[in-house]
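Re: export button greyed out
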Amino acid sequence: MLKNPHPGDHLLLMALDLQLSNRRHARVAAHVAGCTACQARVEHLRSTVLESDRLYRLVDGSNSSTPADRMRLERALHQAGDAWDRSWRARVRYRGIATTTINRALTASAAVVALVWLAGMSLSLRRSASEPGPRQALPVAALTPGAVSTLTATELCAGTRTSRTVTDQVRRDVLARYGMEHTPSDRYELDALVTLELGGTVEPANLWPQPYASTLWNAHVKDALERLLAQEVCEGRVQLSQAQREIATDWVAAYKRRFHTETPIPDHTRSTEIDDDLELESPAPDRTIAGVTRPLLYHSTS
Amino acid sequence: MHPATISSAADLERQIDRELPETRAATAAVQAEVLQLFDASAPGLRRYVGACGLPRDAAEDVVQEAFLALFHHRLRGGSAQNLKGWLVLVCYRLALKQRTRLARQHAREVHLETPLREAADPALDAESAILSRQRHQRVHAVLRALPERDRQCLSMRAEGVTYRGIAAALGMSLGAVAKAIARAAVRVTNAVRE
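Workaround output, generated via the alternate export path:
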């Protein structure tokens, strides 16, 4: 069956009332313009709808407003207006109070956060002064100022060393001072701040628990600096006292200066085959330390 | 009380005092706008609500309530476009509620029992008045006989509601609205011509 090419009455009516989209309106208008039958339908529809409108409006002549109707609305609007103004005041007050409350709550929260932060910082500072954790790259100056023997560079380069053995008592003392009695031993190396190759000793003043991997500047990096300084001392490029001072004062700064880098060289952050660790000994009688020890008074790490 | 609270509350009251005249002026402007629209549109709305089957008093209640709703609509920043159509749709919903309420009260459908009022043009002579009244009676009868939806579509359109507005209010498609209007218009005009 062929589709009816003429638009239905409803489409014509919608077009008359301008209720179609522009595109559809144009399509219907184009059809009507070329179709006499549809033009007649449009005219009929137009007159019918206009007549029905007129009849509808004639239905009841008593629809006009009376003064009483208008006054009734005026009164109602007056009351509603007053209520609206009152509610506006209440809303503004509520918003103001809510804003003040929120501001106060925010201020109080900020104060609490600040206090917590300050307390945390204070605790952290106290811990770093008395009970430092294992994440530090540098020892605490008050706990590990550094200590060296009286061995000369020549003796050191010839292979003479002070004892490498740390007694259990010394080890426990050092760990207790750093608050690391319960830290697993595989997480740190008990390190001589001034390495034995540079004349350091295994006295508590020269020992500290240095973390292996928990910091960028770990024990392996310091080992690399120690090897370099020992080599340069033996080659006569650096005075022994200077090397001792550099490593005891701020070994990280010394590393940056000696290796011309701001960060550790990747190869230095890993363990090497060279074993220069101290020897730990379980309860044993104190061994004699070769040479006479003296404190490093120039240690200034803070 | 904390000094800061007193200061904040005082600031708030000063802000309210500063802004109150402006708010009152805005409220008065909306009141004037609503009253102006009432003067222009209330008769049509009463007619529409009457065509929904409500008696004059109930229709007036609906119209008054619709204008109050318009007042709040405008105060809250509602759109000012096609307010007449907006009022018709509000009247439609309110009329449905009112009709249901009255139907419960009287335990019967009000619009079936309440005759649409007729009005003869006072300027006509006695014979013309009779003819006019007869014609009105016929229109009333046809309008009453129309299916509810067709009558709603016809009267809403006559009061200025867009097809889309009618479709949304009555839950119909645009095409169905147009068909209902065309159908109702033909029936009303044919009945009067007979």
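The first helix of chain A runs from residue 9 to 16. The button fix ships in the next patch.
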